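Board notes (copied after class):
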Amino acid sequence: MSRDAVAGGGCAVSLVGAVGAVVVWWQTARTQRHLGNEFENNGQDFGAVLTELPLVFLAGAVVPAVLWGVGAWLLGRRRRPESLESSGFSEFHA
């Protein structure tokens, strides 16, 4: 697999993870309670939204990207030819 495909896949996984995390967070009863979905907006607290939403977005973007990167690194190590590893040179210096 080429580097461009791996990088594009990592970006796609990161985007899907960030959007998915925000959607799941938005659906929870706790978030709905903070947004004022109770009687006459009792318990409305936008401070919780302002602090939680960026963290949820970052976690949803970073965790899948890191897992994608680790998986790509492990697969790249497994597929590397033996001749490059034994010679002491990397594939970029061949």
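Comment from the instructor: The chain has four helices and no strands. The helical segments are 3-27, 29-34, 46-79, 82-87.
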